[in-house]
Design brief:
alpha+beta, two-stranded antiparallel ribbon, two-stranded antiparallel sheet, 59% helix, 19% strand, binds zinc ion
C-alpha cells in the first residue's frame, strides 16, 4: 500500500510508503489538517497530499482505530448478552406465581 505522488515543483515522481502514510494520518487527525505535507526527495519542497487520499489507502486497522469502529462489535456483544438476561429474569416471576397457585 502506497501513494504515488508527483512533485509539483520538479515533476519528480515518488511514493509514500505505509509507515509514512500512517504517521501522516496521525498528524492530520491530531491537528485536524486537510492536507499532509510530504517533502519531495529530489528538491525537498513540500507537496500537499489531501487527507482523503491518505485515508483511502490507509490500512484497515488504522482507519478503524481512527473512526472508533473497533469498539462497536464489543458493544453489540454486550447488548446481546443483556438482551438475553431479561428472558432469564422473566422466568423467575413465573415460578413464584406457579408456587402460589400450587398452594
Ligand atoms: Zn521536487
Amino acid at each position: 500500500m502506497q501513494i504515488m505522488q508527483t512533485c509539483t515543483h520538479c515533476r519528480t515522481p515518488y511514493s509514500l510508503k505505509e509507515p509514512e502514510i500512517v504517521s501522516a494520518l496521525a498528524q492530520i487527525t491530531a491537528n485536524n489538517f486537510k492536507y499532509y505535507t510530504a517533502s519531495c526527495p529530489n528538491c525537498g519542497k513540500p507537496n500537499k497530499i489531501p487527507a482523503a487520499q491518505l485515508r483511502r489507502v490507509a490500512p484497515k486497522s488504522t482507519s478503524a482505530s481512527t473512526a472508533k469502529a473497533a469498539p462497536r462489535p464489543k458493544a453489540q456483544r454486550k447488548a446481546a448478552a443483556t438482551a438475553a438476561n431479561p428472558k432469564a429474569g422473566s422466568k423467575k416471576p413465573e415460578k413464584s406465581t406457579r408456587s402460589e397457585a400450587g398452594d
